[in-house]
Amino acid sequence: MAHRIANAPLWQHPAVRLAVSILAGVLFVIVVSVPLDLTGQIIFAAGSFAGAMLLNKTPGRMTTLAMTVLSITASMRYIYWRLTDTIGFDNPIDAFFGYGLLLAELYALLVLLLGYFQTAWPLQRRPVPMPADMATWPSVDVFIPTYNEPLDVVRQTVFSAISLDWPSDRLHVYVLDDGRRPEFRAFCEELGVGYLIRDNNAHAKAGNINAALKTTSSDYVAIFDCDHIPTRSFLQVCMGWFIRDPQLAMLQTPHVFFSPDPFEKNLDTFHAMPNEGELFYGIVQDGNDLWNAAFFCGSCAIIKRAPLMEVGGIAVETVTEDAHTALKLNRRGYNTAYLEIPQAAGLATESLSGHVGQRIRWARGMAQICRIDNPLLGPGLHFGQRLCYLNAMLHFFYGLPRLVFLTAPLAYLLFGAHVFQATALMITAYALPHLAHASITNSRIQGRFRYSFWNEVYESVLAWYIMRPVLVAFANPKLGKFNVTAKGGIIEEAYFDWSIARPYLFLLVVNLFGFGVGIWHLVFGSGAETTTLIINMVWTFYNIILTSASLAVASETRQVRSTPRVTAALPAAIRFPDGRTLVCETGDFSHNGLALTVPPGTHLATGSRIDISLFRSDVEGTFPAVVTFSGNGRLGVRFDDLSLQQQAELASLTFARADAWVKSWGQRQRDKPLTSLKSVFAIGIRGFGQVLGNVVKIVRPRRAVSRSEAST
Predict the structure, then answer these.
(1) What's the CA gap between 187 and 592, in Å, rounded?
(2) What is Dmax (Cα atoms) for the chain?
(3) Helix 182-191 vs helix 644-653: angle between axes, to the nearest 10 degrees?
(4) What kind and span of H or E run contains 626?
(5) Rounded to 5 degrees, what are φ and ψ at 700?
């Protein structure tokens, strides 16, 4: 019924649309601003939230938009009340803490509204088939920039790049080696791929690509970070859109990782819940695409050469050269696109310190763009594009607001400051609907790619580290330099990273102290503001959980494999020296070896030499291997002295399979907010225990030394 009404011819008349828009605006203003007493606000909040819960049980995009409207109404009603009824501060201390919190809330509200704008209606673009006549297909240069990564990391990307399904006379693969290493040159020459270097490292990765653009000439350029391994289907899946849309200058695909990032590794959540970046590639980029504002992300993307050269190549003015390049293309009137189909996968950062360094670079670069090429200013962008780019930049300014939220209740517990000039019950009646609506609405929109409350864990870990670089870059965009994210390392022993955990330890200690002060006031205080005290203590307890969870991420676990295994059930066969064949399937694989699921009772001696066959449709590849373990229906093998051609064939049958990453993308169970809150609490308790355990490890040897010295 709703769809029939929405599609009625009456709504196509401009005057009707204008009248309805004005009426809706007036009603919205009335609902947001009408004053209510405590009872009235509670009834309004309960009614609207009950409506949102009922809507949440109904599928459909229109239902999602209705929930978004309810959430925006609750949030705007809260912030209107904050601005009109809660800031009549009586003293400088109240004003200092009160206005600080209010500014943080206004920032959070703006990001919430922009986030709804970006993600409420993802475009969900699908592939466009290539023309049947392959003679019309354009030429493509594949760039694989590298600087200090080991050759073992780069090999797999090159092997997969040369097996891309594309006419061989129009596919040109180049390794862009800014490290100028002889072993890379020898590898490329033996494999028959291009090897390009330059005599300097100016502008880092952007400069490396721009130098290669001067010596190559294909119509299009596909760019892969040296650890991002493309599937064979990458070009055929993506290039059709360039044929359909002559104005399309760039098409981006998701960044998928087959190794765990520090959050997933240290918290043991790999494959159990979405990682930090999946929200961007799962929802945000798809939402940007609706507004023709999809960003270039530096890898797993195709750019049309002519528009790229028109804007001067890859941008070099900032350290986020990728997003800045997309902004320049959009300003020139070119289209950008996003295809939410994983067509490549790479290595995540191994350590928390490396992960923090990468995010610092992203944050600094976005702050630089905000200063020198602000999307709200200048020509060439329509309103939707400006808002999408603005939100991408504002996102990285969360450092200071997040720290405010992590310490705000301490203003009352430690200094007696009243940051709200209102009763505790009125604060609850207005703030709780705002938070609850935002939680369930975002859960509905983001549920496949971000679980509730985990965003606060990610931001708490990074807040302290990105705050200063963002503020400095915003003040002086020329400060700071490009830092390369290390990939392919190992962590031989588990350890607690005390250096990077220092800010979280401080926040944990001060929140614990504040909570203790609150308990003291509950027990020995006058009881005049008990409700206010309890609200601040609950908030402080939640901050203790967040900071404890941040500490859990700083507890680095071992990573002894430099070549992570990819879980996959692929058809396989074991071929024995005597001619026998045993059909089986893989359990996981890497470029060094694989695990096989074999019939129960199958046992092979360690060190036995066999051949392993892997299949893709009617293609078979056979590889010599050595048994490394056998038992319980599992067989582990290590590939034995493969030639370069065999390594390339192995990559085409494993990492480069067209379906390698699609099946696992966005297929997790949808978010359940209460379950997610429980998991965050569990991680927080675990982190608190890990800190205590590591403190004990440090204290015990010192006590032993002291006793030994005393006895002598």
Answers:
(1) 18
(2) 97
(3) 80
(4) strand 619-631
(5) -60, -50
Alpha-carbon distance of 58 to 56, in angstroms, equals 5
CA dist., res. 170 & res. 152, Å (int): 27
- For residue range 222-253, list pLDDT tens digits in order: 999 999 999 999 999 999 999 999 999 999 99
Q: Is 261 designated active site?
A: no
177 is catalytic: no
- Supply the DSSP symbol for 474: H
Report the distance separating Cα 370 and Cα 590, nearest Å: 41
Tell me the residue type at 88: G
pLDDT one-digit tens code per residue, 419-473? 888 888 999 999 999 999 999 999 999 988 999 999 999 999 999 999 999 999 8
252 token code pair: 């981006």
This prediction's pTM: 0.89
Amino acid (1-letter code) at residue 15: A
Q: Which of 177, 322, 497, 671 is catalytic?
A: 322
Q: How many residues does the chain have?
A: 712
Measured distance CA(553)–CA(538) in Å, rounded: 23
Of 141, 177, 178, 671, the catalytic one is 178
Residue whose C-alpha is closest to residue 267's, from 550, 612, 601: 550
The Cα–Cα gap between 464 and 477 comes to 20
- Distance, CA of 361 to CA of 454 (rounded, Å): 22
What domains are there in the chain, each with its CATH number?
A: 35-120+402-464+498-553 (no CATH), 134-349 (3.90.550.10), 569-653 (2.40.10.220)
Residue that has been written with the tokens 């060439």 in this structure: 380
Nearest to 68 by CA among 53, 80, 79, 52: 52
